[in-house]
Every structure is written in structure tokens, then in C-alpha cells.
Amino acid sequence: MRSSKVAMAVGLALCAFAGAALADTINLSASLAPVVQTVKDGKGDATLVLDTTTKMVSWSVAYSGIAAPAMAAFMVPGPKPTDNPTPLMITLPSSAASPIKGSMQLTDPQIAGIQSGNWWIMLGTKDGPEIGGQVKKGQ
């Protein structure tokens, strides 16, 4: 009987530890759609993982239908940011074929902004932003 109580206590402790470790990682996503009238078929999906302990965000952005090769990507605060955070420029590889993957270090205001649900991820070409979508918690 005692060994089953010890096993149960160890199991609960492991569950609590695993839950604490997972609480520092937040899954985010965005559905990308045209943000200018000249782009008719542009679309995409972004998945992001925010680690609040290491202050790192990683992403994968799959896209199609934009007018030219992707040349710029960034995350920006929505229309009324409360903390005036700096937009995040996402460094693209020289050949930014879909999917675009990467990661970067964030500041505390950027983490708060992304968690607020008021930030957008945008993808553009030499002509400017073409597709974008609101970053939301969840898959």
C-alpha cells in the first residue's frame, strides 16, 4: 500500500513539473489573406511558438499566390498598441520560398504585445505588404 502511495506522489510531482515546463511555451497562429486590392490569390498560414522563459519566438510561414517573391516579413502591433512596441522584422533567407522558418529573441514589451492578440504578421514583396493576418493564441 505504501509503495502505491509513493508511486502516486511521484506521478503527481512529474505531472506538476511537466505542466510548469509547458506553461512557458505558447502556441500562436495566423491565417494570412490579402491586405491590398491588387493581390487576389494570396494566402498563407503562420504558426509560431513563443517561449516566455527564453524570450524566443520561432515561426513557420507557408504562403502562396503573392505577386512576386517574398522579400520582407514582419510582425506589427495592431491599430491601437498600448505599449508602443517596436515592430519585429523577420529576417528572410535569400530565397524565401514557402515555408519560411526562423526564430528571434524578443523584448518584454514585444512578448506582451504578441500575447495580447493585437499583433499582425505581414508578408510582402518589393511592392510592399501583400498578405497578413492577426496572430492569435492556439494552433
Instruction: Give me the strand/helix succession.
Output: HEEEEEEHEEE
Strand content is: 35-45%
Distance between the termini: 42 Å
What does the radius of gyration come to? Answer: 19 Å
The stretches of 5 or more residues where confidence is low (pLDDT under 50) are 4-22
The CATH level-2 architecture is identified as Sandwich
Strand segment count: 9
The total tally of domains equals: 1
- Decide which structural class fits the backbone: alpha+beta
Chain-averaged pLDDT: 77
Q: What is the fourth-level CATH superfamily?
A: Superoxide dismutase, copper/zinc binding domain
Gross morphology is: globular
Find the CATH topology: Immunoglobulin-like
Task: Quickly name the level 1 CATH class.
Answer: Mainly Beta
Helix content class: 10-25%
Q: What profile does the largest beta sheet have? A: 9 strands, antiparallel
Number of continuous helical runs: 2
